[in-house]
Amino acid sequence: MTIFDFFNILFSIPKTLRFNLHYFPLKTALKLPVFVSHRTFLRELHGMVNLPSQTRTAMVRIGFGDVGHYDRKRSRTIWQVSGIVTFGGTTGIGHGSKISVRGKLTFGNDFNMTAESTIVCAKEITFGNDCLIGWDVLVMDTDEHPLFDKTGNRINPDKAIEVGNHVWIGCKCTLLKGAKVPDNTTIAAGTLLKSAFTGSNQVIGGNPPSVLKSEVNWEH
């Protein structure tokens, strides 16, 4: 641990205490299962946060990490939650990432979002176990602003996003409402995905996206 890391953890104690005491019963909160960096803006601390039955200190880390080509000293994470967030286990939400939830957001075990990525959840977004999200990724299940036809019917409803187990989403990808990523899949950098794919052990990429390679596996 570097001296920078030591002071980062030390300065993070006030926000860490505030977060845990707000969301969890006292016995759970005192374990500090969620560590929150002091560079995290707790913009909206509402809704509900769920943890697995077995918790441990710092199993969820918000606003930490280090991606070399970003300035983590000036990178601000945002937590804006009025919906339900469920952590299924070890979770890392990297520095500069933005979490905005008024729907239902679920993280599986061993989830890692490296840096400067954004999740906007108005309906439902689910990540399976062992998922890795690169930098500058946007995952959004809503258009935010409704569109109506001439009869007044809404034509762009929110749609859930589902990401399977062992999925790597490369940098600068965009997952929009209705996207479905199957297990054991790699999403190539810069891909725009808004539809459902099937299969496994494949690389999906492009705009519009397609299966670029099959019988492929990835490692951390």
Describe this structure as you would to a colleague.
- By secondary structure, the chain is mainly β.
- The protein has a single domain (3-214), classed as UDP N-Acetylglucosamine Acyltransferase, domain 1, CATH 2.160.10.
- It is built from three helices and 22 strands.
- A hairpin with a 2-residue loop joins β21 (202-206) and β22.
- The longest helix is centred in the first third of the chain and has 11 residues, at 13-23.
What oligomeric state do the depicted chains represent? single chain
CATH architecture annotation name: 3 Solenoid
Given helix and strand content, the structural type is: mainly beta
| Overall tally of domains | 1
Q: What is the percentage of strand-forming residues?
A: 35-45%
Principal-axis shape equals: globular
- Which strand order does the major sheet show? 1-4-7-10-13-16-19-21-22
Quickly name the level 1 CATH class: Mainly Beta
User: How confident is the prediction overall: mean pLDDT?
Assistant: 95
Contiguous uncertain segments of 5+ residues: none
Write the layout of secondary structure elements.
Elements lengths: L2 H9 L1 H11 L2 H4 L4 E3 L3 E6 L2 E3 L9 E5 L12 E5 L2 E4 L3 E4 L3 E4 L2 E4 L3 E3 L4 E4 L2 E4 L3 E3 L4 E3 L20 E3 L3 E3 L4 E3 L3 E2 L3 E3 L4 E2 L8 E5 L2 E6 L6
Parallel strand pairs: 1-4, 2-5, 3-6, 4-7, 5-8, 6-9, 7-10, 8-11, 9-12, 10-13, 11-14, 12-15, 13-16, 14-17, 15-18, 16-19, 17-20, 19-21
Antiparallel strand pairs: 21-22
Summary of the model, kept short:
The protein has 220 residues and is mainly beta. Helix content is 11%, strand content 37%.
